[in-house]
Amino acid sequence: MIRYGYLGPAGTFTEAALRSVPGADEAELVPCASVPAALEAVRGGELDGAMVPLENSVEGSVATTLDELAHGDPLQVVREALVPVGFNLLARPGTTTADVRVVATHPHAEAQCRRWLRTSLPDAEVVLAPSTAEAAKAVAEGRYDAAVAAPIAAGHYGLVALAEDVQDNEGAVTRFVLVSQPGPPPAPTGADRTTLFAFIADDHTGALLALLTEFAVRGINLTRIESRPSGDGLGRYFFSIDCDGHLTEARVGEALAALHRTCADVRVLGSYPRADGVAAQVPAGTTDGDYGAATAWLTGLREGG
Amino acid sequence: MIRYGYLGPAGTFTEAALRSVPGADEAELVPCASVPAALEAVRGGELDGAMVPLENSVEGSVATTLDELAHGDPLQVVREALVPVGFNLLARPGTTTADVRVVATHPHAEAQCRRWLRTSLPDAEVVLAPSTAEAAKAVAEGRYDAAVAAPIAAGHYGLVALAEDVQDNEGAVTRFVLVSQPGPPPAPTGADRTTLFAFIADDHTGALLALLTEFAVRGINLTRIESRPSGDGLGRYFFSIDCDGHLTEARVGEALAALHRTCADVRVLGSYPRADGVAAQVPAGTTDGDYGAATAWLTGLREGG
Amino acid sequence: MIRYGYLGPAGTFTEAALRSVPGADEAELVPCASVPAALEAVRGGELDGAMVPLENSVEGSVATTLDELAHGDPLQVVREALVPVGFNLLARPGTTTADVRVVATHPHAEAQCRRWLRTSLPDAEVVLAPSTAEAAKAVAEGRYDAAVAAPIAAGHYGLVALAEDVQDNEGAVTRFVLVSQPGPPPAPTGADRTTLFAFIADDHTGALLALLTEFAVRGINLTRIESRPSGDGLGRYFFSIDCDGHLTEARVGEALAALHRTCADVRVLGSYPRADGVAAQVPAGTTDGDYGAATAWLTGLREGG
Amino acid sequence: MIRYGYLGPAGTFTEAALRSVPGADEAELVPCASVPAALEAVRGGELDGAMVPLENSVEGSVATTLDELAHGDPLQVVREALVPVGFNLLARPGTTTADVRVVATHPHAEAQCRRWLRTSLPDAEVVLAPSTAEAAKAVAEGRYDAAVAAPIAAGHYGLVALAEDVQDNEGAVTRFVLVSQPGPPPAPTGADRTTLFAFIADDHTGALLALLTEFAVRGINLTRIESRPSGDGLGRYFFSIDCDGHLTEARVGEALAALHRTCADVRVLGSYPRADGVAAQVPAGTTDGDYGAATAWLTGLREGG
Questions:
Q1: Quick one: which of A84, A114, A70, A74 has its CA closest to A16?
Q2: Band of the pLDDT at B34, cuts 50, 70, 90?
Q3: pLDDT digits over C95-105, tens only?
């Protein structure tokens, strides 16, 4: 039986993301204590895969996920999932909003509901919990008055919603990735994404320009670029990048190989279908057909055709 | 009397950063509940300035600070401070390491001591607190067994160190900025930094390349570039940028004006001396003297000299 | 009385170009023996201006003109003229095509009619003359059988056309410039061209890329770029450039000033209306209004607005 | 017996260039009436190769050669030769400088000796001849008083030197290329040059920047870039380019293939040893070894290694 881990406990958005994977209902779903714990279990073979959050449209990237994927034994991203984020204010039955003195939630949820909390519960203390589900559980146990949590946590912990959709920005979305041990990438679909880390050789503006140029000359659009500290001191970074296209495509392969040649290090996490199904734009001159024709022409030149 | 706020409570690294400002010992130092609260108090005139964390050499940038500075009424950065980060494991006198079941700390501290915690306290539960000082206070109140916190928190809360320097990376540093209401920038020193936000008009690779090119053609080195979600959906970002140089210098002024012309929006937070005193490299052809000579020459051309 | 020189003798395309200048019919028109002679006479004050060929749509640029303008005392281009180039085969009355053994013409005319000559007069010898008008004159004097020359040369020298429009490419055009001593440029019209020479500091690919980038970041289109040997040995060049726009416009002025700062030398020959009246494309963010707004904003920043 | 053509007549610098080719003394050397004639004879198989001038360090490129190589059936450059250019003023024995009223020479020689002619023979008329050797021959026949020609022309035509080294710039050099029918390129030597024509798809600044970027990102230095009119009207060009390296090298091959993909057309004339033996600089990350390693790494990624 397939075993998938996810950032637990049960009742989080991550569980919802994992349940969207075909076949998840026949797999064993294992809540993990943390992103590092989930990834280590994949590396160690105890799990076949793990669903972890990568970025949120309001909060930005999840630093822990990026840093854990960038270091340690390589892992592969095989799938992504997008989950709309909506928070409810959950409490034990019988509680009223006026009773709420202490609200528990996860730091990312706090960030996404900050304005609402300041406005609607100006006098409440906000306590941070390791997850929104833990916050809900703590409320069920009577430790806090209310939790800002995912709607599905209510059923898990016997709570009711005092308010719904309390996030400050409508339409927030979290992007999750399903990570496994390295292997061949899923077949290209025409609407794929490639995820990688590039460690540039020095920290000048020119090095970042050069890196972007390797993508630009081959007509590859970047959909996310994040700098992360390398841990070697302020001002030293590596880059976490998502680009359009699949590593088996010629233009993407040539760009990745160029990074391999010119960067201090490159780690490719994989190519996989975009959850939103948006097809990559492939500018004139960069299709696999164009590459094939150019290679044939070059071979002819070299052979003196 | 001057009133400076800082991300409280007392006993945090932020307080230490604020105390490094000349004149801080004659000012009133006001702990604030959060970065947003500190910045709002500056905007409202209740504080003359506020010290807030901007980035950490291990954890990366502080998303809340960036997002709060990027939106709302404009503020100005007038100074930066670098504080080496070292954590101790603090407990009530009489506690031994073997007694520690629950450790409280702030999420950033947790991230920086994660390996140590996993190795040295493999069975302990880690509880997240709003600050390392709150964690120490909670330990003093008997709510948790130990706290990972700043060394100076021990004295504030009557705790002792069970272990010192428990951070995973030696030499971690946090960079703080002192923020005030907008005004003329501090005079240039030759070792200055300029901090800004650029909101690019569209989200293509080309727009980021164009933005970097505006700095590169004028010989200006970027020391930090971070993408942050704009809040308009996945894949839409703005950029938080630090560059060498002072906005009163010709090359920096021309670059900023170019961003003003070509970006959807630019917010300049200010120019201020670098805390490390590293002088900017100014390539041939980009000094103020070069700009002055070029302007005089152009004037001659236009007048038909 | 105004005295204009032109590359003589009478009856050339250059005379036709000069006659298209408003006021030319009231000026004294002086044929000069060569482009260098014409330019020297302008430098020495004997002429108020001189019309010289700059480039031809088939033959390319006129090296002598470029080299003479690039060196020596500076001169200014104040006007351009476009003359369609059509050649006739001219001979003395009574000559038939079968009689033509030796054809005289100028090297550029020879280049533009080469295919026709090879096909229609395969056995004729082609002799090179200093100008098509000299060739026609030599035919009138009986030295050669026919001349490939400008149509108007027939009347000047009493010849008739054995064949008309013998050029290989339909629609060939020669571009001439009217050169005077330096002075204020003509007022901008919205459809202007700026002509300059850039001497790059070293001969690497990077230096040319940097030069082009100074134009590209400011949205300025180049309409001609020619490399010319600097005379310091093979592989060392300077660049002759035409770009859209007028040097009194902000984007053009800033680009020229950038070249002044970063090139070994820049010589601007002037800005003047395009003969074809094609308006410059001015991308968003690069109008004089955009520049003015950016400068005002920058001033505000510096003053602490 | 091998038959090599050259731009004749005998006694020109081109003959000297051809005689520098190993094996030339055992081949039949055939003077041709013009560059087009020489190239057509190679195309038609009447010659095994032809030596033609490509560029001169003072005069610039030879437009006829470039245009004839760019169009028509493809040809290959297999070798280059550098010949120092020194001109003598040649006359019939008994002539003195004071006797010289009419000087014959080729337009390029005239350009390179213009200052000397203006200064030393201010009253002499200059007549243009199809080659310096023709000019010398015409002097021998009594048609003109003196010729500016290559030193070796004196012996061919029974003339004597009235003045030696009359060129304005010391150290001028002409570069010739030996052209044959297409075939495999000569083996790489580490000090090679590649010659090509690129026809860009449109005539904007951006297209030229993009073309240069394809070389720059792969660390390939350009040693010559010339724009030539495409013949489709003013402002429309193609580019004649020399770059360092050999088309069998990975970085050069990838750049050429990129031009094939993105330009309207590319014509590669070949790769051949540099006559000056200067080795190509190959930046870190662009050696064949780097390319091989990157390809192996990419194959591993695709196979899921």
A1: A84
A2: confident
A3: 999 999 999 99
Q: What is the mean pLDDT of residues A259-281?
A: 95
Per the omega criterion (within 30 degrees of 0), is the bond before B9 cis? yes
The pLDDT score that the predictor gives to residue A204 is 64
The neighbouring-strand residues paired with C50 are C5, C179
D290 and D192 share a domain? Answer: yes
Examine the domain organization and report whether D157 and D283 are in the same domain: no
C-alpha to C-alpha distance for D292 and D249, rounded to whole angstroms = 11
Give A305's DSSP letter: -
User: Do B301 and B219 belong together in one domain?
Assistant: yes
Q: Taking CB atoms and an 8 Å limit, are A130 and B130 in contact across chains?
A: no
pLDDT given at position C305 = 61
D271 close to D194: Cβ distance less than 8 angstroms:
yes
Question: Is some CB atom of chain B closer than 8 A to the CB atom of A122?
Answer: no
Choose the catalytic residue: B12, B105, B174, B194: B174
User: Which residues in chain A touch residue B118, judged by CB atoms under 8 angstroms apart?
Assistant: 36
Residue D168 lies in a domain: no
Q: Which residues of B touch A227 (CB under 8 A)?
A: 60, 224-227
- Domain final position from C129, C153, C183: C183
Residue type present at position D24:
A
C185 has a chain B CB within 8 A of its CB: yes
For testing contact with chain A, the best of B134, B194, B234, B238 (most A CBs within 10 A) = B234
User: Does one domain contain both B199 and B303?
Assistant: yes
SS (HEC) of A221-274: CEEEEEEEECCCCCCCEEEEEEEECCCCCHHHHHHHHHHHHHCCEEEEEEEEEC
Contact D208 C212 (CB under 8 A): yes
- Min Cα distance B253 → chain C (Å) is 7
Q: What's phi and psi for D192, nearest 5 deg?
A: -115, 165
C298 to B247: CB separation less than 8 angstroms, yes or no: yes
CATH number at residue B265: 3.30.70.260
Tens of pLDDT, residues D131-183: 888 899 999 999 999 999 988 889 889 999 999 999 988 778 899 999 999 99
CB contact under 8 A, A294 and D247: no
Pair B62, B177 in one domain? yes
Are residues C179 and C55 located together in one domain of the fold? Answer: yes
Q: Is B301 on the interface with C (CB under 8 A)?
A: yes
**Among partner residues B257, B294, B301, which is closest to C261 by beta-carbon distance?**
B294
ipTM here: 0.88
Q: Report the percentage of chain D scoring pLDDT > 90.
A: 70
- Tell me whether residues C256 and B298 touch, CB distance under 8 A: yes
Residue at A168 is within a domain: no
Q: Is the pLDDT of residue D27 over 70?
A: yes
Question: What digits encode the pLDDT tens for the residues B153-179?
Answer: 898 899 999 999 999 887 788 999 999
pLDDT score at A286: 96
Q: Is residue B215 part of a domain?
A: yes
How far, in whole angstroms, is CA B205 from its chain's centroid?
26
Give residue-wise pLDDT tens across range B209-263. 899 999 999 999 988 888 888 877 777 789 999 999 999 999 999 999 999 999 9
Q: Which chains touch A (3 or more CB pairs under 8 A)?
A: B, D
Confidence of residue D109 (pLDDT cuts 50, 70, 90): confident
Residues A253 and A124 in one domain: no
The shortest CB-CB distance from B55 to any of A56, A59, A234 is to A234
What is the pLDDT at residue B203?
Answer: 60
Q: Find the domain containing A280 and state its range.
A: 184-305
Once rounded to an integer, what is the mean pLDDT over residues C68-89?
94
User: What are the tokens at D175?
Assistant: 């570069």
What is the interface size between A and D, counted as CB pairs within 8 Å? 86
What residue in D sits closest to C212 (Cα-Cα)? Answer: D209
Number of domains forming the structure of chain C? 3
CATH of the domain at A115: 3.40.190.10
If asked whether residues A110 and A5 sit together in one domain, one would say no
Residues of A in contact with D297 (CB under 8 A): 257, 260
Where does chain A have alpha helices with state H?
Answer: 13-19, 35-43, 63-70, 107-112, 114-120, 132-140, 153-157, 205-216, 250-262, 288-303
